[in-house]
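Quick entry between incubations.
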Amino acid sequence: MKGRPERRARKARPKSRAPLDKLGASGKARPLGRGEARLLDRVKLDERGLVPVIAQEEDGTVLMLAWANREALEATLRTRRGTYWSRSRRELWRKGDTSGHVQEVTAIKVDCDGDAVLYVVRQTGPACHLGNRSCFS
Amino acid sequence: MKGRPERRARKARPKSRAPLDKLGASGKARPLGRGEARLLDRVKLDERGLVPVIAQEEDGTVLMLAWANREALEATLRTRRGTYWSRSRRELWRKGDTSGHVQEVTAIKVDCDGDAVLYVVRQTGPACHLGNRSCFS
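Done. Structure below.
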């Protein structure tokens, strides 16, 4: 859109961003980078506004499958903490807030059709609420 | 049900079954074993009669996420060939029938809640229709 030029001086953008797979999970929110915003735009949410998310440990173990809405994906991108949408509780669910079993997200991938997401994570403690490392154990 | 005793002599059951993770993908249909039937019964299908299925290569690479109905799961269990339900074509879809990129399924797992399935596979050729090894490449 053309119009008045933006007054960029007021809110300077950070000059560099660490690549997606190099960021630690500080839990601090920060603005989305351009690559992250593009990644988010590639995701096609279903009729409920949700997308299935696979969480995979860095060693290759598939830990769980859960669901995310746009807000959960954005929170994960901003904070690098695995965040989902709980369909049963109907609320945003940041993994580990209750159990302490947090997920540091080291990479986020979207599949070729945009209808599935993969979080590569470093999982603290078991991922499964039954105490197993993986929900598929 | 009580009644006339079954005439078992006509159709003898196979005496032994190879364990789930030891079977090759002959593509031949065979009766479901008791363990397989139990596994199938643990799966909770959603309101569309579907469950998300993760296909993972034996080396840990997540290849794709697709969907299965009960028929697709049963076909996978019987034939050890990765079989799904195509939501776009609304038909059973045995991976590789068109592309030749078949999936030999060496293990099938159901998650703790019964609402996600994992096929461990040996993938021939690329899993992704774009020619990539994984849809998450």
